[in-house]
Amino acid sequence: MKTVHILKFPLRAYAVLLPAALLFSTATLAAEPETPLPAPAANADVEEIEITGKRTLLTFRMEMQQAEDHMFNLFNSLNSSNKLDLTCEQQTRALSHIKQRSCNRRYIEEARMDEIQLAMFLGIPAKSDLQIWNENAQNHRQFSAELKALAEQHPEMLAAIIDVVEKRKRYAEEQRERSSTGLLGNLVGNED
């Protein structure tokens, strides 16, 4: 019968041994000369592995938001006035703790803040978002003209706009497709 001896170390011994082992292994690897891998023959078959899976809605939304952020940053750096800048932030809605992404033009945010200050300090009822939006028609025209001009003058701006439109469309299509299958279909996957 073979006897196996098991060494028991206190937990603090592992705190010393683990970093020492890692240090030793990296030092050993650094000391060994690196040997290059042989180049594959020109006519050799290359093994290819293809992995297919269904992307999540979160993935589509994150791609869309990254494209929006890129376009907004590009627009903000190229436009002629800071009041036209586009900004996004995570905001919680009234009576909720769930944060949602909210993107607006700076002139709309400034008009909202003015309304809030009037309501707080003078007791004047604040205008609705729709009223604020409608009162800024001139700024909307300026924003649209500036966006169009920048897209015509800067190919990277036009490419960023197209990318955002395509990503928004793809996200909306995925939302529609997944909502039609129902919750159970989304959980177990749809095999069409």
Model description:
By secondary structure, the protein is mostly helical. Helix content is 61%, strand content 7%. The protein has six helices and two strands, in the order ααββαααα. It has a two-stranded antiparallel ribbon with strand order 1-2. Helix 2 runs antiparallel to helix 6. The longest helix has 34 residues. About 7% of the residues have low confidence.
Topology:
Blueprint (H helix, E strand, L loop, with lengths): L10 H21 L25 H22 L7 E7 L6 E7 H17 L6 H7 L1 H17 L1 H34 L4
Antiparallel strand pairs: 1-2
- Which strand order do you get reading across the main beta sheet? 1-2
Structural class: mainly alpha
Q: How many helices?
A: 6
Count of extended strands? 2
- Ends distance: 59 Å
Q: How helical, in percent, are the residues? A: 55-70%
Secondary-structure element order, N to C: HHEEHHHH
Percent of residues in β-strands:
5-15%
Q: What's the short version?
A:
The protein has helices spanning 11-31, 57-78, 106-122, 129-135, 137-153, 155-188, and strands at residues 86-92, 99-105. By secondary structure, the chain is mainly α. The longest helix is centred in the C-terminal third of the chain and has 34 residues, at 155-188.
Distinctive features:
6 helices, mainly alpha, single chain, two-stranded antiparallel sheet, 192 residues
